[in-house]
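SEVERITY: medium
COMPONENT: batch folding queue
REPORTER: lab tech (J.R.)

DESCRIPTION
The queue accepted two submissions in a row. Attaching both inputs and their returned structure tokens so the on-call engineer can compare them side by side.

ATTACHMENT 1
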Amino acid sequence: MPPAHGSQLRVAYQGVPGAYSESAASKAYPGCDPVPCEQFEAAFQAVELWIADRAVLPIENSLGGSIHRNYDLLLRHRLHIVGEVQLAVHHCLLAVPGVRKEELHRVISHPQALAQCENTLTRLGVARESVEDTAGAAQLIAQNPLAMRDTGAVASSRAAELYGLDVLEEDIQDEEGNMTRFLMLAREPIIPRTDRPFKTSVVFGLEEESAGSLFKALSAFALRGINLTKIESRPQRKRPLRVVDDSNHGTAKYFEYLFYIDLEASMADPRAQNALGQLQEFASFLRVLGSYPMDMTPVSKTVPCDTDEELGEVAAAAVERPSRAVNGACNGAAA
């Protein structure tokens, strides 16, 4: 359901203003009202509790791989994938104004950001310290400028603008082409179409895991010429172990897995419908997480605010009010 007449679309994301997830939310829904959440699950709950209309959350990074937590949350919650957006990640080294790189003794950021900038940080000879997110690292330094003059942050150039920090060095990541793919989530699914490229995300478990069982399940797509762009396995939490009793070799215990797949086809395509029908013959569990348009737009470096005045308003709010009331409402509901 769209927001009330005349109101902005409220989009939940994990992190604080200046986070890459906020940029992804603005790219996915230009002109939206971003709703920061401390944790991934709080963003899911914000949509379920009608605090937000949509959520935009990372699912995989070209360097760090899959975000397993969000795969698990997709299954735990009943939100639908309604789109995807890809964002180029450009890490910068930030510090209190007037501080030089040589004066830094430690650098703080999200663990993946620190790992992606290993070569630069090793060259600087600084200690690393993990925090919840990249923009949160910049915010922490901005709130404690005297105590943290010897501390730098790995974050975006937008975070530097928001929190009044200097950019000491740009593009400090070890590898070029650092991309993160985000999913757009809503309470209701969209109607699948065939007039543009679509992707469908599915999760399933196998009725019986034996030699070739996964091959047989996935052959449902190959036989119909449907390309799979992603396959991810996650242990089943409710049935983590499968016991096999062999009189010749004793008892063996194996993990029971769920398989997440992305396929290049719309659920409006009869090929996809027939493929899932065949898959169901092998599956103990099957759920379509969403059928949605593929992101075909060019990747941009940042998603800036509309005006300098807007940026100033966001910056003041970000420094003075570190978090909004979303987490209290969501965590209270969870408890």
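ATTACHMENT 2
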Amino acid sequence: MDNLSFIDILDQRPLLNCWLQDYDSSYWIRVPRIEILRMLLKEVPVSIIVTLRFPASNKSPNSLLHLTPTKKEKNVEDSVKTLSIADNFIEPFNQFRVSDMDLDHVVVIQNSVDVHAPRLFLHAESLLKTVQVDAEKGISPFNFIVRAEDKNSMLQEVKLTRQVWMKCLLRGNPRADMFLDYIAAGFENLFMLGDKLKELHSNTDLWLRLKCFHYDLRHFNEPAKSRLENYGGEYYMSNRYFSEEELNYLLMFPTASGATARESLQALFTSKSNIGEVCSSHDLAPAVENIYGIRKGFEKEKNFVAYFRDFAARKNHPFF
């Protein structure tokens, strides 16, 4: 049996269900993972640990014939690592003085139990809104960076790690439920995304053409540039690669943030339009890779090499 705590649940790619053991009866109960997360995060003790089992099959652990999967034991203490914290007078998102703000709308990030330790004050709703906008661009909430001025007007950066979320945002503040709902929705999006990715990856021909598209974005040599730019289509997704029906399917594809692929790509193009053009290899290719679950190194796979050679040799795609 696995002994898992908050960080284990957040670190793992979530499965739809897991098994929770009832200590009174010793029976195992099948519970959605997100509900486990909710129960844990609403508990007061920081060091709470629950016994969970993630089975290799859907068979109940209560069955005598059930084969116990490989077991691991993890003991993880939940603590915020040492951070560069700005003891800010001005809230970085709305530029209000912290002393003038309603404390019910403020979250405090702190790297010590000492009440006199440096703290970072943030307006909860503004923080969440900014995190959501960045999530649409493919930025994980666990990699989000807050920039704020300290008491000496020096700009400091604080990364919202998993530990920060668990220690300061998902518990112990007036807006904890709001942040918990956001994380819960993200897990639910991942459940749905997992099913959609399986569907996409099982369509072998479309999946290989999507890899051809990604490969051309990465390399952007003259032949690739011709395929990307001379056949129309949104976001370089021309009919040299996809039919109109396939293009609509791919652009309506869900992402981990809850936005569609079209919304995520449009957010990328909009953000880049203020500083210049979107780079196919450095901007668009990584976004496509993240949205559709394309693994690095696929260009060395034998089936892709053979398919791409044939694809590149075609004068026109059948959909053109």
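NOTES FROM REPORTER
The first strand starts at residue 2 and ends at 4.
No errors were logged for either attachment.
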